[in-house]
């Protein structure tokens, strides 16, 4: 599954990711609110596919990454079903790395709108954008680790400016 229609080349939504383009804004909305938008390989590949297309699309002026419901993303999906699904042969972790690389490489500004929890891979996606707008109830990984004892799913420090 991809977020690009092979026949028309237009943006399409995939399971768990809503994709739309309007007024120069490519909106990518993580849409699994029942699991606080836990990420699957399909969703992450969809993010990467959309960003790769946006890089060469003159209609796209900015990319907006957000989560549906009360949270941005709780990180990688950890259910057996989430982990067993591969997209394009990629595991969730491989797809997450591909999505982060696509955010960093995109010549269009990618901004994130973070409300509620942003943890693990979800926090990594948000932190790699050029600007993150966060509500007062968002959770950093440090707060999340103290609450549930979980660590960051992928290491995004390699792209932090000045390091």
Helix content class: 25-40%
Domains (count): 1
CATH H level: which superfamily? 2-enoyl-CoA Hydratase, Chain A, domain 1
Low-confidence stretches: 148-163
The count of DSSP E runs of length 2 or more, i.e. the number of strands, is: 5
Detailed description of the structure:
It is a single chain. This protein has 163 residues and is α/β, with parallel strands linked by helices. The chain has one domain (17-152): 2-enoyl-CoA Hydratase, Chain A, domain 1, CATH 3.90.226. It is 31% helix and 17% strand. It is built from 5 helices and 5 strands. The protein has helices spanning 41-54, 80-84, 92-105, 120-128, 141-148; strands at residues 17-22, 25-30, 62-67, 110-114, 131-134. The protein has a 5-stranded mixed sheet with strand order 1-2-3-4-5, covered by helices on one side. Helix 3 runs parallel beside helix 4. It starts with 16 loop residues before the first strand and ends in a 15-residue tail after the last helix.
Give a concise summary.
With 163 residues, the chain is of the alpha/beta class. It has helices at residues 41-54, 80-84, 92-105, 120-128, 141-148, and strands at 17-22, 25-30, 62-67, 110-114, 131-134.
């Amino acid at each position: 599954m991809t977020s690009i229609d092979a026949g028309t080349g237009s943006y399409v939504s995939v399971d768990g990711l809503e994709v739309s383009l309007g007024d120069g804004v490519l909106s990518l909305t993580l849409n699994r609110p029942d699991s606080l938008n836990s990420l699957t390989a399909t969703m992450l590949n969809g993010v990467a596919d959309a960003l790769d297309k946006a890089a060469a699309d003159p209609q796209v002026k900015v990319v907006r990454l957000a989560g549906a419901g009360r949270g941005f993303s709780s990180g990688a999906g950890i259910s057996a079903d989430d982990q067993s699904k591969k997209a394009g042969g990629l595991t969730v972790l491989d797809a997450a790395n591909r999505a982060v690389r696509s955010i960093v490489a995109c010549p269009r500004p990618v901004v994130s709108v973070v409300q509620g929890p942003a943890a693990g891979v979800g926090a990594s996606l948000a932190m790699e954008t050029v600007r993150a707008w966060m509500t007062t109830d968002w959770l950093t990984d440090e707060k999340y680790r103290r609450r549930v004892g979980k660590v960051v799913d992928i290491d995004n420090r390699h792209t932090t400016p000045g390091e």
